């Protein structure tokens, strides 16, 4: 009798869970993000976490409405999975033992109070989407940093360069797991004749998964001559280079609900993230938010333009050092046209 009662209770719970507006919202979510669940159990699990995150999002935004939090969150492509699953999809980066970095270029002696490289030079950069199956932020960050630096001397809008070519040709066996931007920079600086290829000539695969490297003679490739690194914890150096219009890539731990669902405002991470994961961001500016009175770093992510503030995130400055695995394109060679 007890087993029969439990079975009926569970069944009733499932029916209650899947009815009404919650069910409609989830159906719309599945359609909008083109989700494909292979089994009914997988879909039910996704539905559960979608509803769970919907409630957490409402709670966080209520805090923001009352001025008790400096950032807001929203439903996105990750809302149907657990936070621990999200973290597992972005494994902690593993760095090579050697580096071919060079002496950094000279920077301005005076550091600006605030900076936005893209606004300063009128550069239009669209956040790319690395997908949900390949942890390839290292390649997207490398491609975007070179794209931005290459656009600075001219009035031309920069081409989107191919992260996929880096995933395929430089990523080796860890292209979708623990790879780092240095490998992309080593490939571009140390391999004879290699250039970063426009995305139009080497398009992305579905979910950015690694494929066979296809050698391509690009009509508008860009040559990276040198790159440089910044020691961990040296945020002053990061600010100095960004102030001098040099985009800096950093490794960031995304394993928090707030980062996973970030929508707007100045993100303040918890003291202890749930796990150790790696996502590479391109710092393109810094400033002070008047609404929250917080200093922030302006970072370009690779979760697509529907995530965050059109693909960007403002991360609180001076709370925790952001300079981890920091690296930047140092000098650009002659681009072929």
Automatic annotation (TrEMBL):
InterPro entries, sorted: Papain-like_cys_pep_sf, Peptidase_C1A, Peptidase_C1A_C
Domain Peptidase C1A papain C-terminal, residue spans: 111-330
GO biological process assignments: proteolysis
SUPFAM superfamilies: Cysteine proteinases (SSF54001)
Keywords (A to Z) from UniProt: Signal
Signal peptide range in chain numbering: 1-16
A GO term for molecular function: cysteine-type peptidase activity
Family to which this protein belongs: Belongs to the peptidase C1 family.
Protein name from the UniProt record: Peptidase C1A papain C-terminal domain-containing protein
């Amino acid at each position: 009798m007890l087993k029969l009662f439990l079975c009926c209770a569970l069944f009733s719970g499932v029916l209650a869970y899947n009815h009404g507006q919650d069910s409609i919202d989830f159906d719309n979510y599945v359609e909008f993000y083109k989700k494909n669940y292979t089994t009914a159990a997988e879909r039910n699990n996704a539905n559960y976490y979608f509803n769970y995150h919907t409630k957490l999002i409402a709670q966080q935004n209520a805090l923001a409405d009352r001025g008790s939090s400096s950032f807001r969150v929203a439903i996105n492509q990750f809302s149907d999975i657990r936070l621990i699953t999200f973290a597992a999809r972005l494994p902690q980066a593993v760095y090579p033992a050697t580096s071919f970095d060079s002496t950094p270029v000279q920077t301005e002696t005076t550091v600006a109070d605030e900076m936005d490289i893209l606004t300063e030079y009128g550069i239009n950069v669209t956040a790319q989407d690395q997908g949900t199956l390949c942890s390839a932020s290292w390649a997207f960050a490398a491609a975007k940093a070179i794209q931005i630096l290459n656009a600075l001397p001219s009035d031309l809008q920069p081409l989107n360069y191919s992260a996929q070519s880096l995933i395929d040709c430089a990523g080796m066996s860890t292209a979708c797991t623990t790879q780092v931007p240095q490998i992309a920079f080593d490939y571009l600086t140390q391999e004879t004749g290699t250039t970063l290829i426009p995305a139009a000539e080497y398009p992305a695969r579905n979910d950015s998964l690694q494929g066979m490297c296809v050698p391509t003679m690009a009509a508008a490739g860009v040559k990276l001559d040198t790159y440089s690194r910044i020691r961990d914890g040296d945020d002053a150096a990061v600010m100095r280079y960004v102030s001098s219009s040099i985009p800096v890539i950093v490794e960031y731990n995304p394993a928090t609900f707030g980062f996973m669902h970030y929508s707007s405002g100045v993100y303040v991470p918890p003291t202890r993230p749930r796990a150790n994961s790696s996502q590479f961001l391109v710092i393109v500016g810094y400033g002070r938010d008047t609404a929250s009175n917080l200093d922030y770093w302006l970072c370009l992510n690779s979760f697509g333009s529907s995530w965050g503030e059109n693909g960007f995130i403002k991360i609180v400055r001076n709370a925790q050092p952001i300079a981890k695995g920091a690296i930047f394109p140092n000098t650009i060679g002659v681009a072929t046209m």
